[in-house]
């Protein structure tokens, strides 16, 4: 017996809709009850919220497209100002029943939007049915003018048209409500998918060359490994597609059949553990991951920048770390050669001492004072940097992250001294992110 029933829509259409939105039948049924029939006035505004990958955007798009309801769908991240947002709604509305390119209509204020919206609804002959305006990532509306959010919530009243505004967000309505008050929308919560729901949804994507039971067993193993650390449906779909070929290898080679779960699990277990180390990171591409699986390699064997050798730091913290590395591994008297424009011609052999023939990288990092660190920083940064509290706090953060170490005590009269503790490969990876060729400034590589 179908879960979705509505007198205004054919049973076959509702049955098809139910197959497209598994595990969201109760939410779709609630939305159908709120929408009513095409010509009926619906609720002025609906607020739908839930965590990431709980099906909010997909359910709304599928519902409106399957039932062929007139609608406008706008992402508030893409159209991040009020003018871009209002103009995009009008453009989509004007092109609803037209195939030719519509002309751009400037819309600077919400009053202009109300006037142009009424004209567009009349010209498109949409007055006898409900028009739905769906604003995805609606939390961005809080960053716009103060009248935008209250205006959308009362758009049906302001325009005197049959229009419903649907807001999709990942945060609760209490964080939206203005301090001055506003029209309260109808709120609908989309809960997270349970493990049973994820099993059902992921099992629907089984390849045609394998049985549904075989793929369902694979999804069961995948969720057993990843469900505690990742419940994002999109990420799980990516992991399922990425590792399925490895799961099928014993069957393809004829070493096991589809029911031999034990052999299949032993084959896939080490590869799932490797994949768990890179959940959400995307530090390597899918093609690189598949190549590693064929070669039985480790993710760290890939050349290039990896999340294991690269740390996300603020812009000036990267230059501070580069300056600290140069101060640790370059002799003091070479600073004039590297960081002054008119230093004259100085040959390396002319001022090398006997004990300096050994590489500084073999001797290890040497301590340096704070003044020298800042002097090198000002020389390698293109723009003028003021010695503000922000710069000094970033030095403290680098010490906390153990990228720098403080030498001596804090009560020294001549100021603190530091050492850089990172490796050459690490600092080269950091320097590449800011387009700085650190090898040209290292004394050992002259």
What attributes characterize this protein structure?
446 residues; 5-stranded parallel β-sheet; 3-stranded antiparallel β-sheet; 8 strands; 44% helix; 8% strand
Task: Describe the model.
- The protein is flat and about 85 Å long.
- It is built from 18 helices and 8 strands.
- It has 446 residues and is of the alpha/beta class.
- Residues 299-309 have low confidence and may be disordered.
- Strands 2-3-4-1-5 form a 5-stranded parallel sheet, sandwiched between helices.
- The longest helix has 20 residues, at 233-252.
- It is 44% helix and 8% strand.
- It has helices spanning 11-20, 25-35, 56-66, 82-94, 110-123, 148-153, 155-159, 195-203, 212-226, 233-252, 261-276, 286-295, 315-329, 335-339, 360-363, 370-380, 389-400, 424-433, and strands spanning 45-49, 71-75, 131-136, 163-169, 186-189, 368-369, 404-407, 417-420.
């Amino acid at each position: 017996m179908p879960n979705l029933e509505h007198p205004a829509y054919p049973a076959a259409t509702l049955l098809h809709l139910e197959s497209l939105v598994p595990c969201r039948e109760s939410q779709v049924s609630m939305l159908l009850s709120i929408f009513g029939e095409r010509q009926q006035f619906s609720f002025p505004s609906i607020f739908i919220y839930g965590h990431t990958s709980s099906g909010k955007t997909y359910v709304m798009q599928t519902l409106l497209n399957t039932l062929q309801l007139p609608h406008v769908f706008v992402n508030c991240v893409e159209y991040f100002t009020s003018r871009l947002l209002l103009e995009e709604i009008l453009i989509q509305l004007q092109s609803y029943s037209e195939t030719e390119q519509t002309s751009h209509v400037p819309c600077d204020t919400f009053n202009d939007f109300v006037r142009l919206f009424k004209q567009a609804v009349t010209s498109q002959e949409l007055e006898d049915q409900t028009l739905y305006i769906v604003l995805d990532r609606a939390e961005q509306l809080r960053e716009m003018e103060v009248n935008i959010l209250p205006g959308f919530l009362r758009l049906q009243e302001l325009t005197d048209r049959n229009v419903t505004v649907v807001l999709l967000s990942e945060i609760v309505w209490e964080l939206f409500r203005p301090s001055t008050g506003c029209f309260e929308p109808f709120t609908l919560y989309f809960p997270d998918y349970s493990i049973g729901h994820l099993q059902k949804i992921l099992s629907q994507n089984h390849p045609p060359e394998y049985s549904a039971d075989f793929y369902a067993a694979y999804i069961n193993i995948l969720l057993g490994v990843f469900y505690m650390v990742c419940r994002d449906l999109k990420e799980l779909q990516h992991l399922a597609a990425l590792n399925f070929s490895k799961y099928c290898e014993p069957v393809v080679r004829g070493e096991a059949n589809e029911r031999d779960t034990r052999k299949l699990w032993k084959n896939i277990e080490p590869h799932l553990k490797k994949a768990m180390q890179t959940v959400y990171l995307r530090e390597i591409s899918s093609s690189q991951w598949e190549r590693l699986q064929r070669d039985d390699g480790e993710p760290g064997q890939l050349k290039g920048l990896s999340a294991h050798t690269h740390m996300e730091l603020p812009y000036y913290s990267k230059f501070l770390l580069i300056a600290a590395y140069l101060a640790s591994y370059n002799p003091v008297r070479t600073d004039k050669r590297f960081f002054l424009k008119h230093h004259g011609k100085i040959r390396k052999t002319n001022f090398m001492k006997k004990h300096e023939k050994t590489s500084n990288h073999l001797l290890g990092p040497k301590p340096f004072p704070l003044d020298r660190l800042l002097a090198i920083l000002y020389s390698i940064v293109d723009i003028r940097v003021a010695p503000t509290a922000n710069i000094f706090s970033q030095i403290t953060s680098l010490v906390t992250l153990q990228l720098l170490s403080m030498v001596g005590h804090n009560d020294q009269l001549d100021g603190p001294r530091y050492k850089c503790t990172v490796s050459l490969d690490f600092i080269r990876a950091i320097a590449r992110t800011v387009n700085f060729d650190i090898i040209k400034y290292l004394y050992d590589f002259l």
